[in-house]
Amino acid sequence: MVIDRAGMAGFLRRRREALQPEDVGLPRGSRRRTSGLRREEVAALCHMSTDYYARLERQRGPQPSEQMIASIAQGLHLSLDERDHLFRLAGHNPPARGSFADHISPGLLRVLDRLDDTPAEIVTELGETLRQTPLGVALTGDTTGFTGAARSVGYRWFTDPASRRLYAPEDHAFLSRMFASGLREAVTLRGPGSRAADYADQLLAESAEFRGVWDAHEVGVRPRQVKRFVHPEVGALELTCQTLVDPGQSHFLLVYTAVPGSESYEKLRLLSVVGTGWQDGGQQAAPH
Questions:
Q1: How far is it, in rounded angstroms, from Cα 252 to Cα 104?
Q2: 274/101 Cα distance (integer angstroms)
Q3: For the domain 5-89, what is the CATH code?
Q4: Hey, what CATH topology would domain 106-281 get?
Q5: Which of 40, 157, 171, 207 has the highest CB neighbour number within 10 Å of its CB?
Q6: For the whole model, what pTM was predicted?
């Protein structure tokens, strides 16, 4: 396929102008004159330089990679149809749609963008974190940067001891059963050759504990509504987890809250001040 520079530039410009700061969780400011988002704001949302993005709107620069186009589609809160259109304009075939697609729906992103004072994250059905709020990062660490099988919290649970540090030790046995149960259900639903089946094969080869719980053939072990964290800075936290489901993409928005007036509520307020400084010591994130 051949890149349509003029078509891509026009589409990007119109989509940028259609978005308002509040649509993507940004402050409007009192002296704003721009119609829609500024180029530098879109570039930040897309994790690229302003110069790179600006060249695309000016029909200049090299052909963007599929990874860049995917990042732009997510940053501009495009629907799946709009994402596919952008891929074709850029000279690429659109990614396959399905249960393991990483593109987050605009509606789910709009909800997440309004939760800046709450720990929250969007994850796939395999526990792969796609997006977190700043307080979500402060709670569990940044879990969006893993690659390969390590993207899955269930895989990390059985292969990386550090992944267990933020959960109460008395919950570990239950969490092992829960992760194995969830993965078994995903393997059955998605079938051989799926990402779920690949993760299961890797864990069977790498973890004796996983082999033990896998052999029990448990299904239906669901997450508990109240999750007990042991945070390195603020200590023990009991948080209620509410879940919003996007069935079209099999994505889950997890929102963590504490009972007002409780000790955990006060600690959560403290965590908003502490931020992500605790990660500087090299600790990794907790499971979901």
A1: 10
A2: 34
A3: 1.10.260.40
A4: Beta-Lactamase (3.30.450)
A5: 157
A6: 0.80
